[in-house]
Structures are given as structure tokens and as C-alpha cells.
Amino acid sequence: MTANVRHQPGTSRAPLRGKPVPRGASRLVAKEPISLRVNVQKTRLVGFGTLLKRLTWPLLLLGLGYGTYELSLRAMPYADQPIARISVEGDLSYVNQQAVQQRIAPYANASFFSVDLLSLRHELESMPWIASAQVRRVWPDQLVVRLEEQLPIARWGDEALLNNQGEAFAPLELANYPHLPQLYGPKRAQQQVMQQYQVISQMLRPVGFSVARLELRERGSWFLSTGQGIELLLGRDHLVEKMRRFTAIYDKALKEQQANIARIDLRYANGLAVAWREPVAPTAAPTAVVQ
């Protein structure tokens, strides 16, 4: 027997074997792979672990800080001992040791942690002969004080001394230092005068001269008096060049007449003028210009 199967237009051919095709529209949905679901679960677990770590460390630090604070409060009465010893260090030649002890004495009544180190340092540095002070604690009950003394280089007029930094300080015993050179000038020019003094001193040393007085006058000119009793008029500028000229000419032409020289004027461009003492040397004119 034969059978003819006629297909309707617009329809698909149904398979002859297998499961029957369900009627109506349908959609096939693929199942989610097991590996993907496992990865999603792992990601969620890792995110939770990271969050837990982020919360754990701050909590641990907070607990540690609180525990340390509580421990310090409980241990403070046992650790904060009264000051038993204060040691003073430093090479001291001008500082009065008894005066230093009197300044320190009020702080000796404090305890190790309560003593005000900054106040003690300022108290010591207010003393004229102390340039700087350092104060530190030494466990369990000591203080160490390190003092740096002023180094007087010259006198500043009649009212103060100058240290090696050109800074003025005024000790009570100014009359005890007449051997120091005397520097003068406007108050704002202390460091400038000190610097010129140091330069000129070095340049005069090879010819056996020293500075007894150096003055910066109001109009900016410099005046120098040596320890050998000779005055030098230096003018306003080019001091180093003028001092070189003086030392060269002095060593060649004036050295033998040192005792007869009263004043040397260096305000010339290419030479100097010499004023002689009385009585005037027989072979010398009252003034001379050396080229």
C-alpha cells in the first residue's frame, strides 16, 4: 500500500521519528554550567573575606591602642619617678657654674615625665654666656644638660661682645675683656663688621699686624687701628684689594719705618699716602705717595 502525505504550505516538515513536537511556540533555555556557578560562589566568598579583613585590622589596632593607653595609665605612677640627678656637660670657661645650678634647681623638684624640658632650655639660654642648651631625659630618673658657651671674638662698642657668628651678647663682666679688638658700626651691621674684621685679620697676620679697632662709619667708610699703633683709612669699598696693596708696599718699602708711621691713607686708586710721627724721619717727607 502506498500513502501520499501532503504538506501544507508555510509549515515545516515534522520528523517522522522521535518525540512528537509540542504544539504552540516554545523557547529552549540552556542550563547554567556547574563550573560557572562554582566560580560565582567563590567570588562571593572572596569578597566577603576581603571585607572581613578590612574590618578586622582597624578593630585590632583600635583594641591594641586602647590596651596600650590603659596599660600606660596603670604603669605611670610606677614609671614617673622624681628627678634624682641632673648632669651638666660642656666645655665651660666663662659660664658661672653656681649661676647655672640656680637656674636648674626649680626643675629638680619635678618628676621624670612632668619636667618641662623646653622651659628649662629657654631658661638656660637666657643666660648671657650660654649660646645654646640641649636637655634630654635619661631613664629612669635623670636629666642631662648640654651647654654650648659663647665664644667672644671682639667687643661691640662699649656695650656688648660679639661671638664668632657676629651676634652681640652683653655679659656683666664687660670690663674684663679689654684685650679683645673693638668693633663699631650701626647695630644692623654687626655681622658685616665681624666678617670684615675676620678677613682683615687674616690679611694682616703675615706682616705681623693685628686689629685693635675696626669701625664702619655712618657714611660707609672704614677706619682701622692696628695693635702696632698705625691707623689705616680704607674708604668705602674694595677693602680686600686695598689691604693687598698695603701689605705688598709695606713689606717692600715701609717695614723698616714702622715705628715712625702714624697713619696710612689707602683711599687712592693706585697707591697710598703715609703720615709720619713726630719727629719726622730725616729721610722722609711728612707725606708720601707710593705708586
- Compute the number of helices: 5
Q: In sequence order, what are the helices and strands, one letter per element? A: HEHHEEEEEEHEEEHEEE
Mean pLDDT: 81
- Helicity range of the residues? 25-40%
Write down the Rg.
Answer: 47 Å
- What separation lies between the terminal Cα atoms? 153 Å
The major pleated sheet works out as: 10 strands, mixed
Structural class: alpha/beta
Low-confidence stretches: 1-8, 284-291
Strand order of the largest sheet: 6-5-4-7-8-9-10-11-12-13
Quaternary assembly: single chain
Q: Report the strand count.
A: 13
Proportion in β-strands:
15-25%
Which of globular, elongated, flat, extended, rod-shaped describes the shape? elongated
Tell me what the structure shows.
- The chain has helices at 34-79, 97-104, 117-125, 190-204, 239-254, and strands at residues 85-89, 130-138, 142-149, 152-156, 160-163, 168-169, 182-184, 211-216, 222-226, 231-235, 261-265, 272-276, 287-290.
- With 291 residues, it is an alpha/beta fold.
- It has 5 helices and 13 strands.
- Helix 4 runs parallel beside helix 5 (239-254).
- It has a 10-stranded mixed sheet with strand order 6-5-4-7-8-9-10-11-12-13, with helices on one face. A 3-stranded mixed sheet has the order 1-3-2, with helices on one face.
- Mean pLDDT is 81; it is low at 1-8 and 284-291.
